[in-house]
Amino acid sequence: MHFSEDDLRAALKRQDPGEGFAQRVMARVNQAESAPEKPPRRVWFLRLRPALVAVAAVLLLVIGLVVGYQQEQVAQQARARKAEQQAVLALRIANAKLNRVFERVNQRQTVPKVQRESL
């Protein structure tokens, strides 16, 4: 739709507000003065709500990460203790077997050798 300059002048032409304009304006001013103002608590709270939600989400994420990290550390320590116990058990078993072997070797060496006589 094409507007001409004349259409714009006609739309912006000064118009008379009509009878009683001043009385209507003054009535609204008086009405606004007499109405009690509501405390702006809700307004600032509504403005902060997205920020509070974001802070709460970050806080929950950090707490979750810390708890998860601590649980992983506890599990890793338990695995390390189990591996240590298994290594100690393996060394004890190996030690016992080696002791048996050394005992057998020492028993054979202590038996006197029989010398053969020739015919």
Supply the key terms.
mainly alpha; 3 helices; rod-shaped
Short characterization:
With 119 residues, this protein is mainly α. It is built from 3 helices and no strands.
Overview of this structure, please?
Helix content is 76%, strand content 0%. The chain contains three helices and no strands. The termini are far apart.
SSE topology:
Elements: H1 5-11, H2 21-34, H3 41-110
Oligomer: single chain
User: In what range is the share of β-strand residues?
Assistant: under 5%
Order of helices and strands: HHH
Report mean pLDDT, rounded to a whole number.
85
Helical residues, percent: over 70%
Query: Mind summarizing the main beta sheet?
Result: none
